């Protein structure tokens, strides 16, 4: 029998079984499709020069009028602005207590107990001490007068770990008349869906006590947008703050409502976003105005917007364009993104379009669709073809109308996803590859561990395992950037994992047979068609043959063959009714054989023949 050319259908299809997807691909990891052909995913490079504290779930780039590139980065603990590769802490100060804090140290311990009545801190908060005097011995003024992270709390005291261990002379109170500057309360690294037991930091409250939802017991999600050169930031369920570019990165962001000239600025919010065309600051989930003041309590369906060109003026008058509007479908605003000449706003059940129409209404709001809610605040992204988002059980595209995106891995994704942590889902684009995707938590995970990608130019899907808690496509920088484990990564750089071979890279076909499996198939030779994308390095790809006789049987691995650039053919032996081909990178990191090696599959030919019926 002549050689059989195998060109599998592009994309991964998991909607049926691995047998009924004849001639297609069924499983993969760290492999994408380009022009219908599978190839290895782009690599990444970690920036180890600087790191940040907490889990980052928000990135925002912008450029000043002076050409300075900035990157805003919000984490569980802090907010940073990256300038020139250095993370600058601009986290707002919640309160400053003057001349009231005292300290106590215990011999042989580095734990310091601070007393400050009604300090308002929570565990993991940061406090900066100044003007303290030495407790004596190792606990000097220098040890005390710095930033500390709080490790435990009571109503009037808290503890932190000093950089030195106390000795006998340190025991007792000391350092009176000191100042303490408390940064805004940190948030959680886990999503809590509702109030009740467990809806707060560990150790707070009595056993079994319930807590109302607040910015301190929610997954810390930041939204941010630049207003001119300045940056407006908001921790979900928290305050609205502004970082002024002219003040440099040595200064912290400050509460917008506390700036001189501020008038009825919202004090809490679910999200902030700016309207590019007409220069309004838009606050979603703002606290309403009652009488002559804001209530300080979020209205989850209220949208407030500032006067044009003035982010400090929110009082609606006949002489300005400030105002507000309230959505009706759903129970809470989940998220919003900017699109072409409109802002799309999702509640938990519906999609709205918000458009600038000018005075007297300023903005018009139109219900686009119901039943297409957003699964999480970061689960929508604007791409070249429109706005893409993930709902609770489907994927959608909006480009003037709402469209369901047919998905060949829909069951695979939504049958193994932790929707309890859906607020961690983040959407991303890789425009030069025509890709839009989502990072999400698998069912047994509480942190991001998977991605699913849609190639909108070729209308196909694929997926894999990778942890990235936030992502920025190329634009201001030449490469996409992402964050994970306290570091910033360059993505799509080479083909390795930060200088090491990328492991567990594979793509596997569905089962195929001869004559619908009526006869056994014998395979004895493979002629690979494989292109290495980095020809200056010696690498290899393994071709794995798996067999079984019936769809219900487990696959058996018959042979593994290392294919290099010079491989002409590989002789194998396999006999079964059904065959599966798997292409995988050499995972042996000891010889670095596939370091920086990319590969692309073509049309593999297989020497097969019928081999009897039993």
Question: How would you describe this structure to a colleague?
Answer:
The protein is mostly beta strands and 614 residues long. Among the domains are: 4-43 and 502-610, Jelly Rolls; 93-183, Elongation Factor Tu (Ef-tu), domain 3, CATH 2.40.30.20; 375-493, no CATH class. Strands 2-3-44-50-47-48 form a 6-stranded mixed β-sheet, with no helix packed on it. A hairpin with a 5-residue loop joins strand 20 (230-235) and strand 21.
In short:
The protein is an all-beta fold and 614 residues long. Helices cover 1% and strands 45% of the residues.
Strand tally is: 52
**First CA to last CA: what distance?**
19 Å
The level 1 CATH classification of the domain at 4-43 and 502-610 is Mainly Beta
- What name is given to the CATH topology of the domain at 4-43 and 502-610? Jelly Rolls
- Quaternary status of these chains? single chain
Q: What is the radius of gyration computed over CA atoms, rounded to a whole number of angstroms?
A: 29 Å
Residue share in β-strands: 35-45%
CATH architecture of the domain at 4-43 and 502-610: Sandwich
Regions with little confidence, pLDDT below 50 for 5+ residues: 195-213, 589-594
Structural class: mainly beta
| Number of alpha- plus pi-helical segments | 2
Q: Helicity, in percent?
A: under 10%
Sheet of most strands: 6 strands, mixed
Summarize model confidence as the mean pLDDT.
89
- Across the major sheet, the strand order is 2-3-44-50-47-48
Q: What is the overall silhouette?
A: globular
């Amino acid at each position: 029998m002549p050689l059989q050319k195998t060109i599998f259908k592009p994309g991964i299809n998991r909607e049926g079984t691995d047998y009924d997807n004849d001639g297609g691909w069924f499983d993969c990891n760290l492999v994408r499709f380009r022009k219908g052909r599978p190839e290895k995913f782009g690599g990444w490079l970690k920036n180890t020069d600087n790191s940040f504290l907490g889990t980052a779930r928000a990135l925002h780039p912008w450029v000043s009028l002076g050409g300075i590139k900035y990157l805003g980065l919000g984490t569980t603990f802090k907010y940073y602005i990256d300038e020139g590769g250095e993370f600058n802490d601009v986290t707002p100060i919640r309160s400053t207590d003057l001349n009231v804090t005292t300290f106590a140290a215990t011999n042989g311990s580095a734990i310091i107990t601070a007393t400050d009545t009604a300090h308002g801190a929570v565990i993991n908060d940061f406090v900066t001490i100044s003007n303290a005097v030495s407790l004596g011995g190792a606990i000097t003024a220098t040890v005390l007068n710095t930033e500390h992270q709080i490790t435990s709390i009571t109503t009037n005291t808290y503890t932190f770990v000093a950089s030195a261990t106390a000795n006998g002379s340190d025991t007792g109170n000391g350092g009176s008349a000191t100042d303490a500057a408390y940064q805004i309360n940190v948030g959680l690294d886990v999503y809590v869906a509702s109030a009740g037991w467990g809806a707060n930091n560990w150790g707070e409250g009595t056993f079994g006590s319930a807590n109302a939802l607040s910015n301190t017991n929610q997954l810390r999600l930041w939204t941010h947008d630049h207003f001119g050169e300045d940056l407006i930031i908001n921790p979900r369920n928290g305050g609205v703050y502004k970082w002024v570019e002219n003040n440099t990165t040595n200064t912290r962001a400050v509460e917008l409502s506390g700036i001189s000239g501020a008038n009825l600025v919202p004090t809490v919010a679910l999200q902030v976003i700016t309207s590019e065309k007409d220069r309004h600051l838009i606050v979603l989930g703002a606290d309403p105005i009652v009488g002559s003041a804001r209530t300080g309590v979020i209205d989850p369906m209220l949208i407030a917007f500032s006067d044009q060109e003035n982010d400090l003026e929110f009082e609606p008058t006949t002489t300005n364009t400030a105002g507000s509007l309230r959505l009706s479908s759903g129970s809470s605003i989940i998220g919003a993104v900017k699109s072409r000449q409109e802002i799309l706003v999702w509640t938990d059940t519906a999609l709205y379009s918000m458009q600038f129409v000018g005075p007297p209404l300023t903005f018009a709001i139109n219900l686009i669709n119901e039943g297409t809610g957003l699964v999480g605040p970061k689960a929508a992204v604007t791409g070249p073809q429109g706005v893409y988002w993930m709902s609770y059980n489907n994927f959608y595209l909006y480009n003037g109308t709402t469209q369901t995106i047919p998905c060949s891995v829909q069951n695979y994704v939504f049958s193994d996803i932790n929707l309890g942590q859906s607020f961690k889902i983040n959407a991303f684009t890789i425009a030069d590859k025509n890709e839009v995707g989502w990072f999400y938590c698998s069912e047994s995970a509480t942190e991001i561990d998977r991605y699913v990608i849609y190639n909108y130019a070729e209308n196909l899907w694929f997926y894999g395992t990778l942890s990235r808690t936030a992502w920025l496509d190329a634009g201001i920088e030449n490469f996409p950037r992402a964050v994970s484990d306290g570091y910033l990564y360059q993505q799509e750089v080479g083909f390795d994992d930060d200088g090491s071979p990328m492991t567990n890279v594979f793509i596997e076909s569905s089962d195929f047979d001869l004559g619908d499996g009526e006869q056994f198939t014998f395979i004895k030779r493979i002629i690979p068609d494989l292109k290495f994308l980095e020809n200056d390095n010696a690498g290899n790809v393994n071709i794995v043959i798996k067999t079984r006789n019936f769809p219900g049987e487990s696959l058996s691995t018959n042979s593994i063959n290392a294919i290099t650039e010079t491989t002409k053919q590989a002789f194998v032996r396999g006999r079964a009714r059904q065959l599966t081909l798997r292409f995988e990178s050499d995972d042996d990191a000891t010889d670095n054989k596939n370091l920086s090696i990319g590969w692309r599959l073509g049309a593999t030919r297989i020497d097969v023949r019928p081999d009897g019926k039993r």
